[in-house]
Write a structure and sequence with these properties.
single chain; mainly alpha; 2 domains; 13 helices; 72% helix; 4% strand
Length: 358
């Protein structure tokens, strides 16, 4: 129940902030101030239905779909390179009629489920490099290569981190993991500095003021919003930067609107809520009735934690722009539904762990 209450509090907070952050741009683009929030509320309702279904269904059935889901994600990652739509210099989206999605979002969940299933099945062999490290790193390298072609570096970092966390929790050799992680980080850094798209983002991170009306515009406007919020904020709905200064403030940079309207106090409240959610999730993970449930929950909560931290780091210009959304807050129906589905899986694991304790 504490986990469920935290999910509902964060979801409600997120919907309120989508409304506040989006109504100016929604009116400008669609002549309807509620355009974005109506879509987000619909996605939330569908997501809550999916969450309820995930609570009822035994999470162990995911083991049977782990391999097909991983194959589907790989097929979609290849398909987006040929039929995907390019937005902002990145070819990451597949459009099917009114529906659009990023295959990388499916890949994140696929990695969590597939790795959890394989590690739980072959946990006796996790201590060896050839059986406990190499196969998983090879699959992660393949996914990273496909994501690099889009390019989608933030997804590479997230998926690599999720995979390595699961391998470590599953019993993989720490020295080998450190070595492989260091090699992967070095390779990623090498690729970034050879790619004009990524190199430009690094340069704008270091010196956003060098192009205040171009590549550095969004970062500077975000920092203006955060700074103007002060301790208590300007008040809910009173943001100035959302009036077409921050491009699409209801998406990746919604946290800057939170800071401007609710101030330092509101920002800390959001971080506390996420911290409590992540903590409760890991408590559930280590009370799980089996290895698969533990790994599944660790992977899901690590996903939420990493994405939350990366988004705030980007908004505050602590790291280069990555295109990472804030879970439950940023506008995006598909992402919200998948996040609520993940929360339903965690609640299902919790449900069975409670039965075991009794």
């Amino acid at each position: 129940m504490p986990f469920f209450v935290l999910v509902m509090m964060i979801l409600s907070f997120g919907l309120i902030m989508v409304l506040s952050a989006s109504y100016a741009s929604a009116y400008y683009k669609y002549d309807d101030s509620f355009h974005f929030v109506k879509t987000q509320v619909f996605a939330a309702v569908v997501g809550l239905v999916i969450l309820a279904m995930c609570i009822v269904a035994n999470y162990r059935w995911l083991r049977f779909v782990s391999v097909p889901l991983m194959l589907l994600s790989l097929i979609l990652l290849v398909a987006v390179l040929f039929i995907g739509r390019t937005v902002g210099g990145a070819q990451r989206w597949i459009y099917i009629g009114p529906i659009n999605f990023q295959p990388s979002e499916i890949a994140k969940l696929a990695v969590i489920i597939f790795f959890s299933h394989c590690i739980a099945t072959y946990h006796r062999y996790m201590g060896k490099f050839t059986t406990g490290i190499l196969p998983y790193m090879a699959l992660l390298a393949l996914i990273a290569l496909l994501l690099q072609r889009q390019p989608h570096y933030s997804a590479i970092v997230l998926i690599m981190a999720l995979g390595m966390i699961l391998v470590f929790v599953g019993g993989g050799s720490l020295p080998w993991l450190i070595g492989m992680g260091t090699a992967a980080a070095a390779a990623l850094a090498y690729i970034i500095f050879l790619t004009p798209y990524a190199k430009g983002r690094v340069e704008m991170w270091l010196h956003p003021e060098s192009d205040p009306l171009g590549s550095g515009y969004q970062t500077l406007q975000s920092l203006y919003a955060i700074g103007s919020g002060g301790l208590m904020g300007l008040g809910l709905g009173q943001s100035r930067q959302k009036y077409l200064y921050i491009p699409e403030p209801h998406n990746d940079y919604i946290f800057s609107i939170v800071c401007e309207e609710l101030g330092f106090i509101g920002a800390v409240l959001v971080m506390i809520l996420f911290g409590l959610l992540i903590w409760r999730g890991f408590v559930i993970a280590f009370r799980a009735p089996d290895r698969f449930g533990c790994l599944l929950t660790v992977g899901i909560m690590s996903h939420i934690a990493i994405q939350f931290l990366l988004n705030i780091a980007v908004v505050t210009n602590s790291i280069p722009v990555t295109g990472m959304s804030l879970p439950f807050f940023s506008y995006g129906g598909t992402a919200l539904m998948m996040q609520l589905a993940e929360m339903g899986i965690v609640l299902n694991v919790s449900r069975y762990s409670v039965k075991k304790d009794q």
